[in-house]
Specification:
By secondary structure, this protein is α/β, with parallel strands linked by helices. It contains 12 helices and 16 strands. The protein folds into 3 domains: about 5-175, P-loop containing nucleotide triphosphate hydrolases (Rossmann fold, 3-Layer(aba) Sandwich); about 185-360, Rossmann fold, CATH 3.40.50.300; about 365-454, K homology (KH) domain (GMP Synthetase, Chain A, domain 3, 2-Layer Sandwich).
Length: about 450
């Protein structure tokens, strides 16, 4: 559910005119995928943009609008529906055209659709850094839109004028309030291999057709941000393109999708790892989940399509055992069985998310951590180093997200993996942490060299 106090700025145009490049320019980061291949953007891509004075607005990129019988994209009709939904709630429409190509029939079709919204539409003639585009600018007045700005999204020419138009409609009350970690939206990345139901889950959670859903693997390419609210709590959902192994990404678009998905994981707090219960747990699932673990993110495993087929009384227990065997590195992640298509048990995941987020963001007292460390060492002493016992002196938290704890010890020699895992389990159990990793930074006592991280 979008914030009703924020203005919505929507970018539209036919394929390959530079919409995503303009989106990235205004957003001040590379959120949208850009490529010469038409149809790179398929879903609506939202981004919360903050101006220099703190005022905020929602910027939306849409897929290329195609008309006529010969469409380059198999998803042309779905893309057009997505764009129309975005336009219905737009406060300002940025209609982008290609100055090099001149006025094309598709531009006229789009202009005709926007005629009733002319008062909130700005026509942007892009690519004017090229000489032939400059000469074509005046031709676009025939589209009947009064406000026209020549720009080069790639080089930033004229984009300050675009931002000025946006600033003119963004109210001061849209400035961000100071939010502490406890009240900030929980950032969730929906990840998984292609066609496991990630977009269906996004649509179910947002209660709208937010993403194009298809049986064709790889329908989603960009990461899409959607803000929702449940029982007074806010969540930012980041849908991602299905991740394939590097060796499996045969075309340029899929390679860019992997980059987009991994960037989405970096931005999230909790990774919702979606697994297809029909196909079962695969090596590719482990590969995808590994990205979240490597990035130090909290995780919740969601076994999707649990409504399909007959299930024995022990089916869920047996499936979870398989998951635990193949995803040992995510032993800390709880697991839920859901059906994104029917909505079965989907609402049950929010209490889990709240529990995970609380631990992922938590700060703990040094005295509490020292008591846990003392009890853990007393229960199981670490291995000696060259005949001398290793000593732990004290513990203190360095940061949260995830909880990262410094352990001051008598030696810089690395702690054995099994003992590190033992300490991790002891701290997680004592602190009541669910779904979040615990990281340790081992520091030798002052006067001794060496430091190791983990």
């Amino acid at each position: 559910m979008a914030n009703p106090n924020l203005k919505n700025i929507v970018i539209v145009g036919r394929p390959n005119v530079g919409k995503s490049t303009l989106f990235n320019r205004i957003a001040r980061q590379r959120r949208a995928l850009t490529h010469d291949m038409p149809g790179m953007t398929r879903d609506r891509l939202n981004h919360l943009v903050t101006l220099d004075d703190g005022r905020r607005f929602i910027l939306t990129d849409t897929g290329g609008l195609e008309y006529g019988d010969e469409k380059m994209s198999a998803f042309a009709d779905e893309i057009r529906d997505q764009a129309r939904q975005a336009l219905a709630g737009a406060d300002l429409i940025l209609f982008v055209v290609d100055g090099v190509a001149g006025v094309l029939p598709e531009d006229r079709e789009i202009a005709q659709e926007l005629r009733s919204d002319a008062d909130r539409t700005v026509l942007l003639v892009n690519k004017i850094d090229r000489r032939d585009a400059e000469e074509n600018v005046n031709e676009f007045h025939e589209l009947g839109l009064e406000r026209l700005l020549p720009i080069s999204a790639e080089h930033g020419i004229g984009t300050d004028d675009v931002i000025q138009v946006i600033e003119d409609i963004v109210p001061a009350e849209s400035a961000a309030d100071e939010e502490d970690d406890a009240n900030a939206p929980v950032r969730l990345a929906i990840i998984g291999r292609p066609n496991v139901g990630k977009s269906s889950l996004l649509n179910r959670l947002t209660e709208e057709d937010r993403a194009v859903v298809s049986e064709i693997s790889g329908t989603t390419r960009d990461a899409i941000d959607s803000e929702i609210e449940r029982d007074g709590r806010k969540y930012l959902l980041i849908d991602t393109a299905g991740i394939r192994r590097r060796g499996k990404t045969t075309d340029e678009a899929e390679k860019l999708s992997v980059i987009s998905a991994r960037k989405a994981i970096e931005r999230c707090e909790i990774a919702l790892v979606v697994i297809d219960s029909v196909e079962g747990i695969t090596a590719q699932d482990a590969h995808v989940a590994g990205y979240a673990e490597e990035a130090g993110k909290a995780a919740l495993i969601l076994v999707n399509k649990w409504d399909i087929g007959e299930k024995s009384q022990t089916a869920s227990k047996e499936f979870e055992e398989q998951v635990r065997r193949k995803l040992k590195f995510l032993a800390y992640a709880p697991l839920e069985f859901i059906s994104a298509k029917t909505g079965r048990r989907v609402e049950k995941i929010f209490p889990r998310i709240d529990q995970i987020a609380a631990g992922y963001r938590a700060r703990f007292k040094t005295s509490e951590l020292n008591a846990i460390l003392e009890k853990a060492v007393r229960g199981h002493h670490p291995a000696a180093i060259r005949g001398k016992p290793r000593r732990f002196y004290y513990a203190t938290q360095l940061k949260s997200q995830p909880p990262t704890i410094a352990l001051f010890t008598s030696s810089s020699v690395e702690v054995h993996f099994s003992y590190r895992r033992y300490l991790e389990n002891q701290f997680r159990e004592a602190l009541g942490l669910v779904g979040t990793p615990v990281h340790f930074v081992m520091r030798a006592r002052k006067g001794m060299k060496g430091e190791q991280k983990g």
